[in-house]
Amino acid sequence: MSGQMHTLSARVPADDFAWLSGLDMAPAATPSDKLRALIAQMRRQHEGALDYTACIAWLRDMLSPLVAALRGVEHRHEMHSAAVTVVIEWAPQIMATLLAARSLGSDDAAAATALEKTLVQQCFQLIAALLRLGVTAKAECYTEDAIEKQLPRVLELAQLITANREPQEIRK
Q1: pLDDT tens profile 4-57
Q2: 97 Cβ contact partners less than 8 Å away, ≥ 6 residues apart
Q3: How many other β-carbons are positioned within 10 Å of the β-carbon of residue 100?
Q4: Residue 1 above 50 pLDDT?
Q5: CA distance linking residue 108 with residue 115, whole number of Å
Q6: Which candidate, 95, 113, 115, 107, places its Cα nearest to that of 45?
Q7: pLDDT digits (tens, 9 = 90+) for 83-129
Q8: What CA–CA distance (Å, rounded) separates 137 from 59?
Q9: Using the 8-state DSSP alphabet, how is residue 25 labeled?
Q10: How many CB atoms lie within 10 A of CB 147?
Q11: Residue 53 near residue 99, CB atoms below 8 Å
């Protein structure tokens, strides 16, 4: 922390104080340290000062309790979902791209174009990763037909796109 420190006094409900006290925010140990860290984080977010790397670290940190709980369930019940794992990997990357672009100016066409390129690439990488799970009829998911149920709509769209593209390619 830099600059002069000022005292801030606030009354908070007991459950909020308990939550803050129990929050794991290393190296912040005390409620005061944690409050300062939370204010600094919110300020960086508000000012759009979070770069992609900081955003992805923050998002993954936010998801870590869910991921730990899921891994515990998977371990106890001897199950695994490759689909959930893929989404857990890609969703923070896509969101970090969006959050890091918050400082986009209202007249920055080049940055908007670059953002679009990155988002489309990331989304199609997510789609491709999920579609790879459809190679077999029984995907490695909690429900074996989770991917199989979604494929007919995707395949229909792919066929329509392919049919629409073929005449254009012949004309060239």
Answers
A1: 888 888 898 999 989 888 888 778 888 888 888 888 877 776 665 578 888 888
A2: 52, 55, 115, 118, 119, 122
A3: 20
A4: no
A5: 11
A6: 95
A7: 999 999 999 999 999 988 877 777 789 989 999 999 999 999 999 99
A8: 33
A9: B
A10: 23
A11: no
> How many angstroms separate the CA atoms of 159 and 151, rounded?
12
Rounded distance between C-alpha atoms, residue 103 and residue 12, angstroms: 32
φ, ψ for residue 169, nearest 5 deg:
-70, -35
Instruction: Copy the structure tokens of residue 84.
Output: 């959930």
What pLDDT score does 166 carry?
A: 65
Residue with tokens 């953002």: 115
CA distances in angstroms from 172 to 7, 23, 56, 124, 168, listed in the order given: 71, 61, 43, 26, 7
| 63: Cβ contacts below 8 Å, ≥ 6 apart | 88, 92
Q: Are 88 and 67 in contact (CB under 8 A)?
A: yes
Q: Note the pTM of the prediction, 2 decimals.
A: 0.74
Give the whole-angstrom CA distance, residue 152 versus residue 137: 12
| CA angle, 158 then 162 then 138, to 5° | 30
